[in-house]
Amino acid sequence: MGIRKTLQKWSAYQQTVRELNSLGNRELTDLGITRGDIERIARDHASQL
């Protein structure tokens, strides 16, 4: 995997973590997500790029 792809995945991971962390607990619950799920969800998202 090239450096460009690695940076793209890292950026997507960071953005996903940032966006999910900005949500309140009620909003996360409505989405079926706990705070403990955020990093896994971000990794899963970034790995799909």
What does this protein structure show overall?
This is YjiS-like domain-containing protein. InterPro entries: YjiS-like. Residues 3-39 form the YjiS-like domain. The longest helix is centred in the N-terminal third of the chain and has 19 residues, at 3-21. The chain has three helices and no strands. The N and C termini lie close together (12 Å). By secondary structure, the chain is an all-alpha fold. It has one domain (3-47).
Task: Estimate percent helicity.
Answer: over 70%
SS elements, strand count: 0
Structural class by secondary-structure content: mainly alpha
What is the string of helix and strand elements? HHH
As residue ranges, the low-confidence spans are none
Q: What distance separates the N and C termini?
A: 12 Å
Which whole number gives the mean pLDDT? 97
Overall geometry comes to elongated
How large is the share of residues in beta strands?
A: under 5%
Number of helices: 3
- Supply the number of structural domains: 1
Largest sheet geometry: none
Report the radius of gyration as a whole number of Å.
Answer: 12 Å
Organism: Pelagibacterium halotolerans (strain DSM 22347 / JCM 15775 / CGMCC 1.7692 / B2)
Domain YjiS-like: 3-39
Pfam family, one: YjiS-like
Protein name: YjiS-like domain-containing protein
